[in-house]
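Recall the central idea of this unit: under ordinary conditions, the amino acid sequence of a chain determines the structure it adopts. In this exercise we apply that idea directly, starting from the sequence alone.
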Amino acid sequence: MGCKQGSCKDPQVQEVRSNHFPKTLLFSHLFIPFMFWRLVDTDLAEPAYTAACDEAIVRARQKNLVPNTLHLYRRDRPTISLGYFEKVEETVDLEAAKRNGVQLVRRFSGGSAIYTDQAQIIYSVVVKRDRFPSDPNEVYRTICSGIIKGLEELGLEAEFKPINDVQIDGRKISGSAQKIEKDVLIQHGTIIMDCDFDLMFEVLRTREEMTSLTHELERDLEPEEVKKALIKGFEEALGIRIRRGPLTHFENEMIEELVDTKYGTEEFTLLR
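Accordingly, the structure predicted from this sequence is:
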């Protein structure tokens, strides 16, 4: 699986030198300079796949097979995403989850459990650790500023609420979690387009003041509209440019392996 740096024969991933850019990657014959970030949009996907995809991107970034990446997706069914260190029975009403057909998946980052479904956009920023300040709280503030700028594109005024939330008029519309794997950082979280809050608080044992884009804008939104706003927001806030690119062969193989051995297993989901 994969290849050694500098000797890769995978047609989807080739490291090349350029007079214009110090180092670039070739994704399916598209050059993506390292000064650009890659956009991976897997849209609707199974819960185990989404968790595995995030970790696979981190591993590929560690090997310098891919540039810094923004991953956008939605889960294709009601799902509770558990923080790695959380105990299931202290966090989730398992009877209510089973009764309502809500699936569980455990992610590899910490933080609190969240409820997600097709009406929530989930973002993941995967980046070399030295791209941001050393203070994790400042990293949250910096990356969440991209969400705030994205919401501005939609006509909403939001603010960062330490440690890791974005709020509108005191109500949470986005929460995030972080993990550092050697020299790579991942921050991921949700943006609530719409939500069945009654179901959310029936299956989760915690309650917060929350809101949604649909409620704040008093209209329905298409996922693509929100994604475009978020991309613009991250570009402006982080001073970057983002180009769409596919997952690599290495990442696709890693996703399959992680679903089979980790995220798709009851053993890992019910770890605690």
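The chain has one domain: 14-269.
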